[in-house]
Design a protein that fits this description.
This protein has 19 helices and 13 strands. It is of the alpha/beta class. Strands 3-9-8-2-7-5-6 form a seven-stranded mixed beta sheet, with helices on both faces. It has a two-stranded antiparallel sheet with strand order 1-11. Helix 7 packs across helix 11.
């Protein structure tokens, strides 16, 4: 209908209808290419808008250069692939808060279908979800148009096609002269996907090597007693500022508040990334944000080498032996229990009977017990029973400036924090009753983007401080304190010092009494010789600034 209308325009516009399909396809491609550059994440990549647009122009150029026969073949293969890759990048930036790279491939590798389905349903409820649906419809339309394109290539079109290649050729020349040829492949999602898969394979090979032939530090030994019990509790998506232990207005830690005098709270710790897979590989191996491909060996390997028995209790998923870096780091634990394999819609409190059983076992040997919670993972209201909801509390006044959806989301998030509080308090009570040298270390893998002033919610927003600022506290039994007099005071002296969890490994080793020649005390948060380092966000690409909004409470 529109093309019929074009035929009746004045003569200068008459021939435009012949190229209507091609103009629509090229225009839509450019619009989506520009949309791809709008992600906040790309602010850290030099020349990113120029890269993406130059690549898209180069993809369009063959439409104006190829003969009709080859043009049709090109439009039903490369153009739909380019369109789908742009859509994929837009979706992933809103879904995971990052573009396609080796870290994202690792995240996808450890995500189950069930978790992805839960997460997708939540995202589709947001405005970004409707944009994703619109993008899918646009992709289908453009693929349909690409099948019906009818070109009549003219000399003028050929000249235009050559000009469209020019920006990409100049960009390629720049990267070649600056000795960065690999950057050419980072111009678009379509070319980054195979690069990311290759980089992830290299990362995985490093962890396979570390698991099969670990590089143990020299003179590795243990100074702790044979009956030491170490409990390391890994929270999920818990933001420090939503814990009343740290001053949050809502009482989300009513039970831990009773233990506050025995807890040593660290109030300036941030995670290394906003995703579980990369955060835990950084925490439990020698991998850091600066050195990403050489894990050397895992903490579990070090602990078992000096005589510790290790046990993993998890409410998250188990995968095969060589699937992901996380499974490789914990593949040789002496004992493991995965709740999700036994209980449908599992909650963290269902781990308690197994925790009690493992706490009382093996009193004659040093033991490390890992407890990996589901904590405050999306969707928040699935992490606690409805009858355990504390918020909004009776009589609580809501903020009229905050959308009702954000208030509800925040209440559900706070309820999940409060439910984890119950489990942690019960665990502390049972640990104290064992009357043996023991410690409990609790920290979260990362936070969540729940903070004041949100007009809309974007999960795991890499630009939100709340996604990095995590709780971390240590509890030491009276027997442990007697064995290491002055150690608790040493920890208290460092509780306000800045730290990032990609070097928390050295603190965990210290708690377990594991050391070696050349031990870097300056990276040990629990040492008097600790020296803070510069902290980063966005996978080590941006310096963390504590001066951003504190993201502590929604309600005044």
């Amino acid at each position: 209908m529109f093309k019929t209308f074009l035929r009746h325009l004045p003569r200068p516009f008459w021939k435009f209808h012949k190229y209507y399909d091609s103009c629509l396809l090229a225009g839509s491609l450019l619009v989506l290419a520009v949309a791809e550059t709008q992600s906040d994440y790309f602010a850290i990549i030099p020349f990113w808008p120029l890269r993406s647009i130059a690549f898209t122009l180069a993809v369009i150029a063959p439409l104006l250069l190829l003969s009709r026969r080859w043009n049709r073949l090109y439009t039903i293969t490369i153009i739909p692939l380019a369109m789908l890759s742009i859509f994929l990048n837009c979706w992933l930036c809103h879904y995971y808060g990052r573009p396609v790279d080796e870290t994202l491939i690792a995240i996808l590798a450890v995500s189950s279908f069930g978790e992805s389905r839960e997460f997708t349903v939540e995202v589709l409820k947001s405005p970004h979800g409707w944009l994703a649906v619109a993008a899918i419809c646009s992709t289908v339309l453009l693929c349909f148009l690409s099948w019906h394109l009818k070109f009549r290539v003219t000399p003028g079109m050929r000249r235009t096609g050559y000009l469209l290649f020019l920006p990409f050729l100049l960009l390629t020349l720049y990267f070649l002269t600056s000795r960065q040829p690999g950057q050419i492949l980072n111009c678009a999602t379509l070319t980054r996907i195979p690069v990311a898969i290759h980089q992830y394979q290299q990362l995985l090979e490093g962890f396979v090597k570390a698991a099969l032939t670990p590089e143990l530090p020299p003179e590795l030994h243990r100074t702790s007693p044979d009956n030491l019990l170490g409990v390391i509790v890994i929270g999920e998506s818990a933001t420090r500022s939503h814990h009343s232990l740290y001053g949050y207005r809502r009482n989300t830690n009513p039970r831990l508040e009773e233990w506050k005098k025995e807890l040593i709270l660290f109030d300036d710790v941030i995670s290394s990334t906003v995703h579980t897979a990369s955060s835990l590989t950084n925490t439990f191996s020698f991998v850091t944000l600066q050195e990403r491909t050489s894990p050397r060996c895992s903490f579990d390997t070090l602990a078992r080498h000096v005589g510790f028995k290790t046990t993993l209790l998890s409410n998250q998923l188990r995968w095969g032996e060589f699937d992901t870096p996380i499974t490789l780091m914990f593949k040789d634990v002496n004992d493991s229990y995965y709740l999700k394999e036994r209980v449908a819609n599992s909650r963290d409190d269902q781990l308690l009977p197994v925790i009690q059983e493992k706490l009382t076992a093996g009193n004659g040997s040093p033991t490390v017990l890992y407890i990996h919670l589901l904590g405050s993972h999306l969707p928040f209201h699935h992490r606690y029973p409805a009858q355990a909801a504390l918020f909004p509390a009776p009589g609580e006044i809501s903020d009229s400036r905050t959308p009702a959806t954000i208030q509800q989301l925040t209440a559900e998030y706070d309820n999940s924090i409060a439910f984890s509080d119950r489990l942690l308090a019960l665990l502390l009570m049972r640990l104290k009753g064992l009357n043996r040298p023991a410690f409990l270390l609790y920290f979260s893998d990362h936070g969540e983007a729940v903070y004041p002033g949100m007009a809309e919610w974007r999960p795991r927003n890499p630009d939100a401080n709340a996604c990095y600022e995590v709780p971390l506290f240590v509890w030491l039994s009276p027997e442990y304190r007697r064995l290491r007099p002055g150690f608790a005071e040493q920890l208290k002296n460092n509780r306000s010092r800045p730290h990032q969890t990609d070097r928390l490994l050295y603190g965990i080793l210290d708690l377990c009494g594991i050391t070696y020649r050349g031990f870097p005390h300056e990276d040990n948060l629990f040492s008097p010789h600790y020296r803070p380092r510069t902290r980063y966000t966005h996978e080590g690409k941006k310096v963390y600034h504590k001066t951003l909004p504190r993201q502590s409470t929604i309600f005044p």
